From TrEMBL:
Subcellular localization, as worded in the UniProt entry: Cell membrane
Protein name in the entry: Cytochrome c oxidase assembly protein
InterPro entries, per the entry: Caa3_assmbl_CtaG-rel
Membrane topology, as annotated: Multi-pass membrane protein
Pfam families in the record: Caa3_CtaG
Organism name: Rubellimicrobium roseum
Entry superkingdom: Bacteria
Main location group: membrane
Length: 237
């Protein structure tokens, strides 16, 4: 592969609105990796759903759209960290119960580090860095959810960890929403083709991270609380 092939935006250049649905990512290496993951998790419904979520993130036109819009990149990252990761974590929970605190710290550091403008622009402009970003986001999230969704994890600490994960993401979203200027040079012009100014696109991304991104965390929180309620109700009087 030539050096020019590395120094590009993965999924290709930012798409125009009229060509979005033609922009499926059929990268052979990616398709082989997803197929292998699906084969390895063929006996796990949650694992297969997790692989399907990754396919939406990386194969569907969402991948191309996230090259154009920061707001689409937010949806992409939420899909990886709050949908695919917990589904994959259910395949093999942590070996033993442990505090989710350290995993939450790692989850937070990785998310915030990759949204530092220099790191973000670097990752989107160089394919190896792009995959380093995606891999670290996914691994940090899977480690976090393996702790939180462990069958023996105390429901109280699990719920607090889920709340903490959403709150730190919401804080980052709020900071992006109220930033007085655009932060990401990689999205300096492409949003204009979508009738958005770069700042409006960044604000929309911040709002998505701030509020709607909390919905998958809420769903997992409800499932954890339901597990705790079932355990409590099954205890002998």
């Amino acid at each position: 592969m030539t050096s020019d092939a590395w120094t590009r935006i993965y999924c290709g250049p930012a798409p125009l609105p009229n060509e979005l649905w033609l922009r499926w990512n059929l990268d052979p290496g990616l398709l082989i990796a997803l197929t292998l993951m699906a084969f390895l998790m063929r006996r796990s419904p949650s694992g297969l759903l997790g692989v399907a979520a990754l396919a939406v993130a990386f194969v569907s036109p969402l991948c191309a759209l996230s090259a154009a819009l920061f707001s689409a990149r937010v949806v992409h990252h939420v899909l990886i960290m709050a949908v695919a990761a917990p589904l994959l974590a259910l395949v093999r929970p942590a070996r033993k119960e442990s505090s989710p605190g350290p995993a939450l710290v790692m989850f937070t550091i990785v998310l915030w580090a990759w949204h530092w403008p220099v790191a973000y622009d670097f990752a989107l402009g160089w394919v190896p860095a792009y995959w380093l970003m995606q891999a670290t986001l996914l691994v940090a999230a899977v480690v976090f959810w393996r702790r939180v969704l462990h069958p023996q994890q105390a429901e109280g600490s699990a719920l607090l960890a889920i709340l903490g994960a959403w709150m730190q993401m919401a804080l980052l979203g709020a900071l992006l929403t109220f930033a007085p200027e655009t932060l990401y040079a990689i999205h300096a012009t492409a949003p204009l083709a979508w009738s958005l100014s770069p700042l409006a696109d960044q604000q929309l991304g911040g709002l998505l991270m701030w509020v709607p991104a909390g919905l998958p965390f809420l769903v997992w929180g409800v499932l954890v609380a339901r597990r705790g309620w079932r355990t409590l109700s099954e205890r002998p009087a």
